[in-house]
UniProtKB/TrEMBL annotation:
InterPro entries associated with the record: HD/PDEase_dom
Species name: Maribacter polysiphoniae
Protein name according to UniProt: HD domain-containing protein
Amino acid sequence: MTAMTIKSITRYCSEILQNDKCKNLPFHNFAHTQEVIDNVFLISNAIGLQPKEVDFIAIAACFHDTGFSETYEGHEEVSKRLAAQYLSKTNCSQTEIERVLSCIDATKMPQNPLNVYDKVLCDADLFHLGTTNYMYRNMLLRKEWELFCDTVMTDKEWHLLNIKFLEEYRFKTAYGKEVLEKGKQENLNKLKQLIRIR
């Protein structure tokens, strides 16, 4: 896998994500995918993966939300199909393609990573749970659900749903457990505070 191939994959996926339905998604848009790619490199570097191993996780990150171009529910299956179609035309082996598809599959909620590569992408995808911009990202997700899923909740319902999610979610990598978990707990406390204030 060459740097040139990865660059062309990024360009191909960015075109999908910046066209069709994807460009109108407040949360699952190209900016999110770019962040996930950056998070993949950050986490992989922190846990000591080899550059060649990271390439395939980064490719999976490029494709992981492209399925939103066709469907909202079950978009991962479409993302896998788009990835397989594209990668079969490159010099990727079947084993390498399977690794990419496994990573994408693992991001399906509830996450079910089977190996370290899957775990890296899962944590990269939900990285924001442990950061200071969690509240802002969460607001974008709420807006997206209202626009694209007809899911409208009161503030209290939304906060309770997210409290439950944060309480149950477990980061998968050592980086997630050591670094992101602290931020996640802080965000959980902020949400609980909002419930108390109301």
